[in-house]
Design goal:
7 helices, four-stranded mixed β-sheet, single chain, 4 strands, globular, alpha+beta
């Protein structure tokens, strides 16, 4: 495990993160240099995503910590005076993908001014834009572990606190099924595996009673919690 501080935030990088990123790179690219570039692209992109969550949570007075692991990354935060309001939780959830979209857009704008590049540099820049934009938008899908799931839960907590869990479970399950079907039809194996895992997680959550503090949250892109505890992966 690699540990370091970034902007006075503790960051942990587990070996599983580098392993999964490398496997995805080697499966999709037959050039070792491009595979190494892909690992760097994923590392930078997910770290920027988590920094978006972390900076926003810290702005609201929370203590934060970032971890990159085999499922992507998560940001743990603990509010100093108890649970944050639903509105602030929604802002924290949205901030990760927003940071990635801004970064991807900046790379696209700046890189276009200095082209042409070498094939490796072109590969790196193109994928920095793709990963940050595509994964950022993907994270806003209304599925419980993703940012969109946190956004929807915050909204339901505000407008329908009693029926919120039932409504959320229905929407999350439906979205996961649709994502799985679309991924299979378009032969997007990685997305299909992710959607299948999310669907199984949702069905498992539906069979278990919710804890007093709410259903457990687990995310490919982030995990925002009120308590700085380990999240089972």
């Amino acid at each position: 495990m690699l540990r370091f501080n970034l902007f006075n935030m503790p960051v942990r990088v587990r070996g599983s993160f580098l392993l999964v990123a490398a496997l995805i790179g080697f499966l999709g690219v037959d050039d070792p240099a491009r595979s190494a570039a892909w690992v760097a692209i994923v590392f930078v992109s997910i770290l920027i995503h988590e920094l978006g969550h972390a900076f926003t949570a810290r702005m609201f007075g929370s203590q934060v910590a970032i971890e990159l692991n085999g499922l992507g990354g998560l940001t743990r935060w603990a509010a100093p005076d108890g649970e944050l309001t639903p509105g602030r939780r929604a802002v924290i959830a949205a901030a990760g993908s927003a940071a990635g979209l801004l970064f991807g857009g900046a790379v696209w704008l700046v890189s276009g001014r200095f082209a042409p590049y070498s094939p490796l540099t072109t590969f790196t820049l193109d994928n920095l834009v793709f990963v940050n934009v595509f994964w950022g938008l993907l994270n806003w899908l209304p599925i419980r572990p993703l940012d969109g799931g946190h956004l929807l839960e915050s909204l339901l907590q505000k407008v329908a606190p009693k029926r919120g869990p039932m409504i959320a479970r229905t929407i999350f399950t439906t979205t996961a099924v649709v994502a799985l079907v679309v991924a299979l039809q378009t032969r997007r194996l990685f997305i299909a595996v992710l959607a299948g895992w999310l669907l199984l997680s949702e069905l498992g959550a539906g069979r278990q009673p919710a804890a007093a503090s709410g259903l457990p949250t687990l995310s490919y892109g982030d995990d925002t919690e009120d308590e700085p505890e380990e999240t089972p992966l």
